[in-house]
Specification:
34% of the residues lie in helices and 23% in strands. It is an alpha/beta fold. α3 packs antiparallel against α4. Bound molecules: uridine 5'-triphosphate.
């Protein structure tokens, strides 16, 4: 029986160049999705999957992240005096999500390097990695399914979605093999952003991982790859091809609701989708959109 997954690593030290200039002085993980920063949805997801130890990898402008998950005594007092309980609850919710730890990635040397910065905190146990670019609807469980597969296989687990073949070159792509009698797949290899002709499947990698700690030794030895960055995909490729303790990569194909917030257009679509479901103004927004023709 393997160790159970308790820890979540949330990398938030990237430069967010696709969102400039909004991300000049603020991490992209702090961009609001309706009325909460994207990272709050991600921490909520980790907590509801039972992960009670959250480590955030931060970089420049980490202040906003830390402040968001901390208490805000002056603001809370003001809301209390006004009797504004709803807003007070919304403010206290973020700091009540549990203790969050922070480690700084001195330089944004890539997602693989960001994960490696969590090594000391994580230690020798399997752990989850959640990226703020992908929001998974709270009604559709993904992490718990991935944690189960990690416990069953003893390897590392990635999340996959089926995309239109023409879209695959925007993602990492997995070459997979079905596992008889199981609802997860075995990952033979991973190709980063393949052309449509080269793609081994239409299964794209999204931002949820449950990793065996063997990934740390592999990351230590992983040379900078695409874009001069230490890529998590390259380390996973090594684990997929390896044998022995901690090797083997498996995939869970996610068919639920996912909101991509990684680039400007997807982000706007995600915000509109989630806003249109809000009871306070969803119907008004949809009525307005119907009439809106630019
Ligand atoms: P992305 O490649 O999507 O983020 O990395 P980015 O580099 O910030 O964005 P662009 O491409 O320049 O617009 C995926 C996740 O990994 C984190 C990012 O913060 C994001 O959550 N990351 C990336 C790090 O923490 N450190 C890095 O060195 C790179």
């Amino acid at each position: 029986m393997g160790k159970s997954v308790r820890k979540a690593v949330i990398p938030a030290a990237g430069l967010g160049t696709r969102f400039l200039p909004a991300t000049k002085a603020m991490p992209k993980e702090m961009l609001p999705v309706v009325d909460a920063p994207a990272i709050q949805y991600v921490v909520e997801e980790a907590v509801s999957a039972g992960l009670d130890d959250v480590l955030m990898i931060t970089g420049r402008s980490k202040r906003a992240l830390e402040d968001h998950f901390d208490s805000a005594p002056a603001l809370e007092r003001t809301l209390e005096l006004k009797g504004d309980q709803a807003r007070l609850d919304s403010v206290q919710h973020a700091s009540g999500l549990g203790p969050i730890h922070y480690v700084r990635q001195g330089e944004p040397k890539g997602l693989g390097h960001a994960v490696l910065c969590g090594r000391q905190h994580v230690g020798d146990e399997p752990f989850a990695v959640l990226l703020g670019d992908d929001l998974i609807d709270e009604r559709d469980e993904l992490l718990t399914a991935m944690i189960d597969v990690q416990a069953k296989t003893g390897g590392s687990v990635i999340a996959l979605i089926e995309v239109e073949p023409a879209q695959i070159s925007a993602y990492g792509c997995a070459d997979i093999l079905a596992v008889e009698g199981e609802d997860y797949v075995r990952v033979n290899s991973l190709v980063e952003k393949p052309s449509v002709d080269e793609a081994p499947s239409n299964l794209a990698v999204i931002g949820r991982y449950v990793l065996h700690p063997a990934v740390f030794d592999v990351l230590e030895k992983t040379e900078p790859g695409r874009g001069g960055e230490i890529q998590l995909t390259d380390a996973l490729q090594t684990l997929a091809a390896g044998e022995g303790e901690g090797s083997g990569v498996y995939g869970v194909v996610f068919r639920g609701r996912r909101y991509d917030t990684g680039d400007k257009l997807s982000y706007l679509k995600a915000v509109i989708t989630l806003a249109s479901e809000r009871p306070e103004f969803g119907e008004d927004l949809k009525a307005w959109m119907k009439d809106f023709n630019g």
